[in-house]
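hi! just following up on the protien thing from before. the input was this:
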Amino acid sequence: MFELKVITHFAAAHRLKLVAKKCENMHGHNWKIEVCVGSKRLNSAGVIIDFGEIKKHVAEITAKLDHCVLNELDCFHDNNPSSENIALYIAKELQAIIKDNDIKVISVTAWESEDACAIYKLIP
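and the predicted 3d structure came back as:
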């Protein structure tokens, strides 16, 4: 299995329901997002996919989240915009964009601070 990882960032505000009282207040984060995709095969150029292509797709997804109040977005209408749900959202959106059936999103990590992150892993 070959894996490729890209990292990007976005800033947004959110408030979480039914968690620690501090987090129920509106607050913001500068999220660091790590996306890992994989494939059992390399393409004719000897890569899984061009880094630029994955970066472009991830940038399209995170642009919808950047400088927003996440609670107000349709994608989090029924879910807390937690780091866990952000990672899940990015993973599902990216997998839907990738046209090559051999390439799978392996994991998305959403860092909300330097020492706290949530990871969504797709288990085959």
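Residues 2-121 form a domain with the Tetrahydropterin Synthase; Chain A fold (CATH 3.30.479.10).
Strands lie at 2-14, 27-39, 104-113, 116-121.
cheers
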